[in-house]
UniProtKB/TrEMBL annotation, chain A:
Family assignment from sequence similarity: Belongs to the bacterial solute-binding protein 5 family.
Subcellular location: Periplasm
InterPro entries per record: Peptide/Ni-bd, SBP_5, SBP_5_dom
Keyword terms of this UniProt record: Signal
Species in which this protein is naturally found: Sinisalibacter aestuarii
Positions of the Solute-binding protein family domain: 67-393
Annotated protein name in UniProt: ABC transporter substrate-binding protein
Primary residence: periplasm
Signal peptide: 1-20
UniProtKB/TrEMBL annotation, chain B:
Secreted as UniProt keyword: no
Superkingdom in the source lineage: Bacteria
Domain (ABC transmembrane type-1) ranges: 95-299
Membrane topology, from the record: Multi-pass membrane protein
Annotated keywords: Cell membrane, Membrane, Transmembrane, Transmembrane helix, Transport
Family annotation (CDD domains): TM_PBP2
Subcellular location: Cell membrane
Name of the protein in its database record: Peptide ABC transporter
InterPro entries named among the record's database cross-references: BPD_transp_1_N (IPR045621), MetI-like (IPR000515), MetI-like_sf (IPR035906)
Length: 488, 314
């Protein structure tokens, strides 16, 4: 039957008949979201379905990572930088027909920063001392101290505006203000969303979209090839990308993500508390070998914990250039060290990259013991228990260099000078000074060899050649469908 | 017969209780906290603790075991940590994929194996027999996921007769059965190979028995002796294998479900383990244990039906 319609469509095309534009899309995703409430879980898959499609925040990320107005048309800051006033868009309705007002914003932010909040990014809301509805379209947020990052924080998926009437069912039937409404979720198979005809902004071109969950790389390849899915924005089988590149039916989309992939080191545990050992490790690593061997050539080498596509990025790769002789010299100075425990979580960048790093470290006389961990184990033992020497992980949160100011963070970097720098950054709103501070912070952690910085995780996607408007880069983990359309 | 059934039912109950304790203990011992998994890298300790409270993870092991086991007795399997829906609903939804798939595969496997096994036994030592034995040897040796990928490449990617996977739901039964066809074939062929070989050797063994010679001596043709006397006696090992295969197909299709991205029980259990959705894993494993024990129980009863001696002995 499918073939008959296909054949008929081809006939219609060759006969030059007018053809209705296709307005539905099926997207492949590797992981299924555990639930659909972005304010109650960290899973990236939640935002990949709902961000900008179902839910919107006061502000939002654009495709290039810039913070844009969303539900708030505009905002201003008081002289002393502690009071933000957001002006909401008029005439915005939730999908259940109720009005979105300042009261909903107050409810959302109070809920996220409450004592019993289970928001995965609760830190975004620290410093907020009060949220008040001035009138139905004006919200005032009071801060304990100035915070230039507030509009940026409000753009996260964890800060989207929800309504008290519908929040209890958000996990399974989300109700937001976005251009698409939730239609159905067949658990284990797909989620479908449909165009919201009452949307306050520009209507999207797509009438509906289906997110299909395919975790196996071979199955993902077959599903693309068979035409079961139209696009796979985070394609799990990079080794097959060249096959898609040479096929005119498809296009390959390679972009950048916010994922700084690092070889994290336990800065408080001997022998890694010795900067010479950390420096020796950094010089022993050949980044290009790892990008080629573990990532099939996709990924940009980095020398610090900052995204290369950010205008403030400083290229510090030379500071930890591949120099095995220097590593050997440093290790000769330090003397014998025991084998280091290298703990690897499941993603292929860690498992494949770990093998390569272990081999490179052996070249300079540093032995490692590899342990493969599941995510839940990794979180408990490495991230929570800090019981590790080395681990490989991609930090995918945007602009997250501030984690180096948390001395209890799993790699345990404790530098008062750096903490002062980040504190100043938090209260600075002058762009030039902010940029200056960001650069200083990058240099400081690179010079202290806190971690070995490997590469920026690439976003490799495959799509039908006729689809346009998919995000190339991933400033946040999302599949924003508002600008996606089929071309003919 | 009744006493036999009762003694089997009693051992079923004891097995279930022992299994529930073992499952609970093993899964609780595995490192990894569901709350910190759900909240990820940037979560504050207070948020994780608040979530642990909400999920009821802060109680003692014994009280959690009792509330879980007690809930199951009343049909309440608890609420999934990650999906936030009742486990019973999740399982019921997945069962509508896994159970038809298992039955479909079992039917295919039996339909292939019976005639093949019968022919091989009847033509023992001939070229046909050697051919069948060779083919079934291959069928056992080839892993089902490899065979599944081959099917996808041929029938989905190249010929485009089937989609590469997924399940459209039962609202359109034709489409649903079509979606289950490739996975069922992939699952059935190795099973059919095993079953055909068991069938053949069981038949050959019974065909050598004295009573077959007697039956032949009293004038039955070889075919009549086989269908009336040998087949029935050869059924016991065959039934055992069918029972085992059904349990395997229901619980063990994880890899095939991944290859065809079918939303079945295998996928659910796999996701449950990686996401530390302990309550889903515990309840699901318990349910599968129950299914396996139940099938064994039914096979025991079936033995008694085909073999009158078992009824009297018990």
């Amino acid at each position: 039957m499918k073939h008959l319609t296909l054949a008929a469509a081809m006939l219609a095309l060759t006969a030059g008949m007018a053809q209705a534009q296709q307005d539905t899309i099926t997207l492949g995703m590797v992981l299924e979201p555990p639930n659909l409430d972005p304010t109650g879980g960290a899973a990236a898959a939640i935002d990949e379905v709902v961000y900008a499609n179902i839910f919107e925040g006061l502000t939002r990320f654009g495709p290039d990572g810039a913070v844009l107005p969303a539900l708030a048309e505009s905002w201003e800051v008081s002289e002393d930088g502690t009071v933000y006033t957001f002006h909401l868009h008029d005439g915005v309705k939730f999908h259940d027909g109720t009005d979105m007002t300042a009261e909903d914003v107050v409810f959302t932010l109070d809920r996220a920063r409450a004592e019993d909040s289970t928001n995965a990014q609760k830190a975004l809301f620290t410093g907020i001392t009060g949220v008040a509805a001035v009138d139905p379209l004006t919200v005032q947020i009071t801060l304990a101290e100035p915070n230039g990052n507030l509009p940026f924080n409000m753009a996260w998926g964890d800060a989207v505006i929800v309504a008290p009437e519908s929040i209890d069912t958000a996990a399974t039937a989300p109700v937001g203000t976005g251009p698409f409404t939730f239609t159905e979720w067949v658990q284990g198979d797909h989620v479908t969303i449909t165009r919201n005809d009452a949307y306050w902004g520009a209507a999207p071109a797509l009438a509906s979209a289906t997110f299909k969950f395919i975790s196996d790389p071979n199955a993902a390849f077959a599903a693309m090839m068979a035409g079961d899915v139209d696009a796979f924005p985070n394609f799990p089988a990079p080794e097959t990308l060249s096959q898609f590149e040479s096929d005119p039916r498809f296009k390959v989309i390679v972009g950048s993500t916010e994922g700084e992939t690092i070889l994290a080191m336990n800065n408080k545990l001997a022998p890694l508390d010795d900067i010479r050992v950390r420096e020796a490790i950094a010089h022993a690593i050949n980044r290009q070998d790892i990008v080629d061997g573990a990532m099939f050539g996709f990924g940009t080498p980095i020398g610090t914990h900052f995204a290369p596509h950010n205008p403030d990025y400083v290229d510090l790769t030379a500071l930890s250039a591949y120099d095995p002789e220097k590593s050997k010299a440093l290790m000769a100075e330090v003397g014998e060290i025991p084998a280091l425990r290298l703990m690897l979580p499941p993603p292929s960048y860690a498992r494949r990259g770990g093998e390569i790093i272990a081999a490179q470290l052996r070249e300079v006389g540093i032995e490692t013991e590899i342990t493969n961990l599941e995510w839940a184990q990794w979180l408990e033992q490495v991230f929570g228990g800090k019981d590790f020497d080395l681990t490989i992980i991609s930090h995918t949160e945007p602009a997250d260099i501030n984690i180096y100011a948390r001395p209890d963070y799993y790699f345990q970097y404790d530098n008062a000078e750096f903490q002062a720098l980040i504190a100043e950054l938090g209260v600075t709103s002058d762009p030039a000074r902010r940029s200056e501070l960001n650069k200083q912070a990058q240099e400081m952690i690179a010079q202290d060899y806190v971690n070995a910085y490997l590469f920026q995780l690439a976003k490799t996607g495959v799509a039908n050649a006729k689809i346009e408007g998919l995000w190339e880069n991933a400033p946040t983990q999302a599949n924003d469908l508002t600008g996606v359309r089929w071309t003919e | 017969m009744l006493r036999y059934a009762f003694s089997r039912a009693l051992s079923l109950a004891v097995s279930l209780i022992v299994a529930s304790v073992v499952i609970f203990a093993v899964i609780e011992v595995i490192p990894g906290d569901p709350a910190s998994y759900m909240l990820g890298l940037n979560a504050t300790p207070e948020a994780v603790d608040a979530l642990r409270d909400q999920l009821g993870l802060n109680g003692s092991l014994v009280s959690r075991y009792l509330s879980w086991a007690g809930g199951m007795l009343t049909g309440d399997f608890g609420l999934s940590y990650t999906y936030k829906v009742p486990v019973a609903d999740l399982v019921a939804q997945r069962l509508w994929v896994s159970l038809p798939l298992a039955l479909y595969a079992l039917a295919l496997s039996t339909l292939i194996a019976f005639p093949v096994g019968l022919i091989a036994a009847a033509r023992r030592g001939t070229v046909t027999d050697y051919g069948i034995m060779g083919a079934t040897q291959l069928g056992i040796a080839v892993p089902n996921f490899w065979f599944a990928m081959l099917l996808v490449l041929v029938f989905a990617v190249n010929l485009r007769w089937f989609s590469a996977g997924g399940f459209p739901g039962w609202s359109d039964p034709g489409a649903a059965i079509k979606a289950l066809t490739l996975p069922a074939v992939a699952l059935a062929l190795p099973q059919a190979s095993i079953l055909a070989r068991v069938m053949r050797s069981a038949l050959i063994e019974t065909l050598g028995q004295d009573y077959i010679r007697t039956a032949r001596a009293k004038g039955l043709s070889r075919r009549q002796a086989t269908t009336r006397h040998a087949l029935r006696n050869a059924m016991i090992p065959v039934l055992t294998i069918i029972g085992l295969q059904f349990s395997f197909l229901l619980a063990g299709a994880i890899i095939i479900e991944n290859v065809f991205y079918l939303p079945g029980l295998g996928r659910l259990i796999f996701q449950g383990i990686t996401q530390r959705d302990l309550i889903v894993v515990e309840s699901l494993v318990m349910l599968l244990v129950f299914a396996v024990i139940l099938v064994t129980f039914l096979v025991d009863l079936a033995y008694a039906a085909v073999d009158p001696r078992l009824r009297r002995r018990a």
